[in-house]
Automatic annotation (TrEMBL):
This is BZIP domain-containing protein. GO terms for cellular component: nucleus. Residues 1-46 are annotated as: Disordered. SMART domains: BRLZ. Its main location: nucleus. Gene3D superfamilies: 1.20.5.170. Residues 10-73 form the BZIP domain. PROSITE patterns: BZIP (PS50217), BZIP_BASIC (PS00036). It is found in: Nucleus.
């Protein structure tokens, strides 16, 4: 009987080992699938990250262009303000010196709001020798 009991024990042991092998195989397969899924997600995230970097670079380039244009507009505004102040000063001097008022025609509103004009305006180059007194 001892040999019959050993045979049953060996059979159970063999089935348990086979079951453990199958379980380990399933576990390795799940681990491999999880690894493949993570690698796929990694690749997808790297691609999305690359697209985000490209968009950021594009926005930064556009910002630098707009910032440079803004600096030019600020310089032009400063120059035009200086011209206007000089012209106002000359007008006051003329009125004070001659006693005759200067009749300055009203400037059309469209010229005061050039961004609303139907056609583009040529840029004004800023320079320091515009007025030579």
């Amino acid at each position: 009987m001892a040999s019959g009991s050993n045979a049953k024990f060996d059979e159970r042991k063999r089935k348990r080992m086979e079951s453990n092998r199958e379980s380990a195989k399933r576990s390795r397969m799940k681990k491999q699938q999880r690894l493949e899924k993570l690698m796929s997600e990694k690749t997808q995230l790297q691609n999305e990250n690359g697209l985000c970097h490209e968009r950021i670079d594009s926005v930064e380039r556009n910002y630098r262009v707009l910032d440079a244009e803004n600096n030019v507009l600020r310089a032009q505004l400063a120059e035009l303000t200086e011209r206007l102040d000089s012209l106002n000063s000359l007008t006051r001097f003329w009125v004070d010196a001659t006693g005759f008022p200067v009749d300055i025609p009203e400037i059309p509103d469209a010229l005061l709001e050039p961004w609303q004009l139907p056609c583009p305006i040529q840029p004004i180059d800023a320079s320091s020798d515009i007025f030579q007194f």
